[in-house]
Amino acid sequence: MLIVNDEHRLRVGIPSLSKRCPYCRKALRAYPLILSDDAGFAVYHATCAAALAIEIQVDLYTFFRPPAPYQQLFVLDVTQEKRAPASSEDLCSPQT
Fold first, then answer.
1. I need a surface site. Which of 14, 54, 65, 96 has the fewest CB within 10 A?
2. Which helix (H) or strand (E) covers residue 55, if one does?
């Protein structure tokens, strides 16, 4: 959720800007801010939230398409759903 003013901040239950950003550990002094919707609500600077999202995308890409000389460990096979209901073990099976 995007927080751009004091009214938004108060509506989501953040009493003040004295908290620190969990990404950069600097005080949340200025807007815009981003409220995450994870299990433990956290507030980030907008730039920190963007950087965190990019890091997650890079990590996922690297996991599924590792650079040489490393081999791919797992392959997601969505075609198994068409044949039979797949268990979670079938979806992430080691590549041979």
1. 96
2. helix 46-64
Whole-angstrom distance, CA of residue 86 vs CA of residue 96: 19
Confidence of residue 82 (pLDDT cuts 50, 70, 90): low
Evaluate whether 91 touches 76 at the Cβ level (below 8 Å).
yes
Q: Rounded distance, CA 39 to CA 56, Å?
A: 17
Which domain covers residue 80, as residue numbers? 2-94
Chain position carrying tokens 């907008």: 46
How many residues make up the chain in this entry?
A: 96
pTM above 0.85, yes or no: no
What span, in angstroms and rounded, lies between the C-alpha atoms of 3 and 9?
6
Q: Is the peptide bond before 22 cis (omega within 30 degrees of 0)?
A: no
Q: Could you tell me which of 18, 4, 12, 5 has the C-alpha nearest to residue 46?
A: 4
Number of domains in the chain: 1
